[in-house]
Amino acid sequence: MPASRTAYEEHAPASSVVRAALAGSRHGVFWLEDAPGTTYPALVGATTADLAVVGGGYCGLWTAVLAKRRNPGARVVLLEASTIGWAASGRNGGFCEASLTHGEDNGRSRWPEEYDALERLGAANLDALEADVRDLGLDCQFERTGSLSVAVEPHQVEWLRGSPDFLDRDAVRAEIDSPLFLAGEWERDSCALVHPARLARELARVAAELGVEIHEGTRVTDLDAPTRGPVVVRTTGGPVTADRVALATNVFPSLLRRTRMLTVPVYDYVLMTEPLTDAQLASIGWSHRQGLGDLANQFHYSRLTADNRILWGGYDAVYPTGGRVRAAYEERPETFTALATHFLAAFPQLEGLRFSHRWAGAIDTSTRFVAFHGLASRGRVAYAAGFTGLGVGATRFAAEVMLDRLSGLSTERTRLEMVRRTPLPFPPEPFASIGINATRWSLDRADHRGGRRNLFLRTLDAVGLGFDS
Ligand SMILES: Cc1cc2nc3c(=O)[nH]c(=O)nc-3n(C[C@H](O)[C@H](O)[C@H](O)COP(=O)(O)OP(=O)(O)OC[C@H]3O[C@@H](n4cnc5c(N)ncnc54)[C@H](O)[C@@H]3O)c2cc1C
Asked: What is the domain count for the chain?
């Protein structure tokens, strides 16, 4: 099949229009600027803990909060190298999905026998998270809007037919009006939206109120785990002698050698518009405020904020050779230009609207596109990482898994094959770059060829390394 242009390329506006839309944008994370927060002191000197949590993103914060719920008397110390929620947790799209498996296809193909349980546990996790938001008073703009997947190419319409939530062209455009949208699927219950940075900072507030000792600006440099007794967590501020340790460092270099090759950073880019006027909003509808995503391999995701800005992200997924997390990777003019072009192709009625912010973040990618969970140092150190862009809800589940395991409990969660098995590691360089870039190139090619996957992608699918988003 010859390559054709995607709908976004077909409907691209003039480059002068794109330039004007981006001209006033500045590099900065809207969510972090829009989230009131407290600062927490760095650790100074030696201390002790029943549980030391490393990492102040959602995973570490949920672990600390839920540990206090299980055992209010426990001494819990949380150590964050920088500031609470500065990384992925404070800069993501805020789609809080029920799925723990990155969708049904990925889950069913990897864990066919336990998929039904995974789906049920994921739905229960989202319900429990919603209850926590309410009961703990987390002020994070939680909205259980569901998500709207849209077909922007004819072959994608076929993928949606047969869904009980199918919306034809008129019905999808009645929800969100874009000339690109050919059909849609509105899953009403399986996704909520949150203000990402507020969720992180509110979790920290609640943790502190429950008695968790939080230290920002405190990097953990090493773990010293003798055969018996407590683990010494060495930090830039002093040692923490802890009975149990939970590692929630995600895409950052693991403190355990064995998990270092299990994640790589893949950079994801985001634009945020100025607030829409009432007339601009009326021109697209969106009164049900769903999370929005298209069905391309290189997909776009989008949503409204509380003050009616539009977040528009995704499409490019860039792996920097060497697999390091670096602020320098967050500025990529060609990607921001492509995103702005695609936004205006989707919503030509918003020409004249300007982007206020642009930013990027490292997606915590694992080879199975789902987090992994493990236990080390004779059951005293637990870890969870590799959420692959699906961590807003799944980190809460991972926190429960780590706490179950650190208590030596056998639960439905800890018995899951998904939890017991670790994914294949990424290969060393240059093979990692070659493989990841070949995958990205092939996915883009499939988007230009009616969704047809080439031999390389079909081979990855066959050996369980493929991902059909
Ligand atoms: C642009 C973008 C969009 C995304 N969109 C979505 C979305 O819409 N929905 C979704 O579900 N997921 C999304 N994700 C993924 C989601 O944000 C993450 O999966 C989730 O935030 C992971 O939380 P975490 O706590 O594991 O990691 P992080 O938030 O990365 O936190 C890890 C923390 O550990 C700290 N740390 C690391 N090493 C050390 C050390 N040695 N000592 C002390 N502290 C340390 C870091 O400083 C960091 O604060 C997105 C990610 C990005 C980047």
From this structure: 3
Spatial separation of the C-alpha atoms in residues 237 and 20, rounded to whole Å: 47
| 10-residue mean pLDDT series, the chain (469 residues) | 82 96 97 95 98 98 98 98 98 98 91 97 98 98 97 94 94 98 96 98 98 98 94 98 98 94 95 98 98 93 98 91 90 96 98 98 93 96 96 98 98 98 90 80 79 75 65
Same domain, 202 and 218: yes
Handedness of CA 76, 82, 88, 94 (dihedral sign): positive
* Pair 213, 104 in one domain: yes
Tell which one of 83, 89, 326, 331 to mutate to probe ligand 1, the residue whose CB is within 8 A of the most ligand atoms: 89
pTM for the whole structure? 0.96
Expressed in angstroms and rounded, the spacing between residue 250 Cα and the centre of ligand 1 is 6
- Are residue 208 and residue 124 in the same domain, yes or no? yes
Position 356 in a domain = yes
Best residue for ligand 1 mutational test, from 304, 364, 397 (most atoms within 8 Å of Cβ):
364
467 within some domain? no
Q: Do residues 270 and 402 both lie within one domain?
A: no
Using the mean position of ligand 1's atoms as its centre, give its distance from the Cα of residue 90 in Å: 8
**DSSP codes, 89-158:** HHHS--EEES-SSSSHHHHHHH-TTTHHHHHHHHHHHHHHHHHHHHHTT--S--B---EEEEE-SHHHHH
Residue 312 covered by a domain? yes
54 lines ligand 1 (CB under 6 A): yes
Q: How many Å lie between the centroid of ligand 1 and the Cα of residue 375?
A: 20
Q: Which ligand 1 atom is nearest residue 387's CA? A: 19
Structural domain contains residue 468: no
Q: In terms of domains, do 15 and 126 share one? A: no
Residue 308, Cβ neighbours under 10 Å: how many? 16
Going by alpha carbons, the residue nearest to atom 9 of ligand 1 is 95
> Among candidates 41, 15, 7, which has minimal Cα distance to 237?
41
Which is the closest atom of ligand 1 to the Cα of 58?
A: 25
Ligand 1 contact, 451 CB (< 6 A): no
Domain boundary among 330, 349, 365: 365
Ligand 1 neighbourhood includes 246 CB (under 6 angstroms): no
The residue contributing the CA closest to ligand 1 atom 52 is 92
